[in-house]
Amino acid sequence: MAAMAERRRTTRVSIVQDHDRGLYMISVAADLADMHPQTLRAYETKGLIKPGRSSKGTRLYSQADVDRLLRIQEMTVELGLNLAGVAQVLALEDRLTKARERAEMLEARARELEIEVARLEQLRRDLRAEVVPYQAAGLPARQVDVQRPTRISILREPFQGS
Question: Is residue 34 left, alpha or beta, with left meaning phi > 0 and alpha meaning psi from -120 to 50?
C-alpha cells in the first residue's frame, strides 16, 4: 500500500499542448479574449473564426482561435476596421503565411539542388580526367584503354576458289 502511494507521488505526467487543438468552451474563450460569447458566435457566422466541435457539437476553441480573436479585437478597436476590413486583412495574413511557408520550402529545395549540382560537377570533373585523345584516330578514349591497348587477333581461313 505504501509502495503504491509512493508511486503515485513520483509519477509525473507531461502534457503537450497543441496550439491548434480545441480546448476551451465558448465561455472560457470569450473570457480569454475579453469578449461576449455572442460576439464569438457572430464572428463564426461571418467566417472570421472556425472553432472545432466536440463529438456532441459543442464549440471548442484552440489557443490559435483565442489569438485570432485578440487580433480581430485589435483591428476593430485600435485600428477602427469594420468586420469586412478585418476579413480582408485576415485573408491577406493567411496568404502571406502560406507564401512564407512555400518560400521556405523552395529555399530548402534550392539548397538540396545546389548540393546535387556540386556532386554532379565533381563527378563530371572526375570522368573528364579519364578521357584523353586517342592518338591513332584522333577520337577520345578512356585513359585506361590507351595505357593498356587491347589487341585483337584475326584468324583468316585460306581462300578456296571454285
Answer: left
